[in-house]
Amino acid sequence: MAVARDRRPPFLRRKSLREGLVDVDGPRVSEAMEELRHRSKATLHDRLHRVRTAAGLALQAGLAAGLAYLISHRLLKNPQPVFAPISAVGTLAASVGQRLRRTIELIIGVAVGVAVGDGLIYLLGTGAWQLGLVVTAAILLTVFAGASVAIVIQAAATAVLIVTLSPSTQNLEIPRFVDAFLGGGIALLVTAILLPLNPLRVINRAARPALDLLAGQLDTCAEALRNRDRGAAQRALFRLRENKEELAALSEAIEGAKETITISPARWHRRDELTHYAEAADPIDRAMRNSGTLIRRSVTIIEDEEPVPETMPDSIAHLAESVRLLRHEFAAGEEPEKARERSLRAVSEAGRAYAEGVGFSGSVVIAQVRTTASDLMVASGIEQEEANRLVRQAFGDREQRSGETTEQSPAPKPPTAPPVG
């Protein structure tokens, strides 16, 4: 007897076979799709943040290029005002905080390129091999003189222009000098007078990714300790180690703010506020590194199955909240009192965990909580010695009170006491 063949699509046949059974693939698929949606949102958020951060620079560059072209073409009667807007944009595109230096480098590079290009053209004429020789000579001369990379590139580019355009454009050298001065000067004028950026707003935007990264990975570490999830702790460690871009952006923003406040009269009144940020960069960097040690030891705690007192993850979560409060209070221009209080609470909770009993790696985590809290206190404007004293007080007082309650039922102590501060 022939059996009727099931002609339904394969996925419908598989579905009918699984009727009444538990769908084991559904949760994994849902989790993967949720992670994909989260990554898409994060990527869009990061891109929008980069656009907002670069918007001010884009406006400055556009204004400087337009003014440089207009002045060179209308006032100086340059029929081909190409170099002036290029110099203006090149100055503004330099690393923030180095625009005055970039202007000087542009002019020096132009001088070297013109001298080498004109000299060799006079002796050798023009052509492909002459062009190669001129560029080689310009680069070697500037490198021998110990010039920066920017001067080397500018000298080589100018030499190329001199060799290739001189046969068809007469008296190119003087306009090139003038345009270099004009473009760089207009870029500085736009930065200092016409469209100076708010230095604190620039720093706030640059500080957000670094501080959010630190707070997020500390939160992940705290949750990983609660759940003894080694994978989550390891991922937090890897992510925190990839902090060079965030820290570089913060350092660059601080240098740019210093430059703006130096050359822009409209921003001179912001000098005192900028000092807080400038002094906070180093302790934030130290907090990043110490938090990396904290998370790495948390991975070891989970691997070695050491005891994890309930207050240990709580102390790390308080550190994360302290970082967020520090960012918020800096952005609002407020004294970071809440951030300091939360840092000391993290130390107090760490003292309770220490008194309850931790293993060797646990003692290192406690030590790093104290050290990171001290770093955050210094970042908030507290002197290092005072920050260490407050950390000792928050940790020691809690340890003493816990010791009084545990004398009747002593808890095991770690093999070494965590260092102070």
Automatic annotation (TrEMBL):
Protein name from the UniProt record: Uncharacterized membrane protein YgaE, UPF0421/DUF939 family
Taxonomic placement: Bacteria, Bacillati, Actinomycetota, Actinomycetes, Micromonosporales
Record region (Disordered): 392-421
Transmembrane segments: 104-125, 137-165, 177-197
Listed Basic and acidic residues bias regions: 395-404
Domain of life: Bacteria
UniProt KW keywords: Membrane, Transmembrane, Transmembrane helix
Comp. bias regions, Pro residues: 411-421
Compartments (UniProt record): Membrane
InterPro entries xrefs: Memb_transporter_dom (IPR049453)
Topology class, membrane: Multi-pass membrane protein
Domain Integral membrane bound transporter stretches: 67-190
GO cellular component: membrane
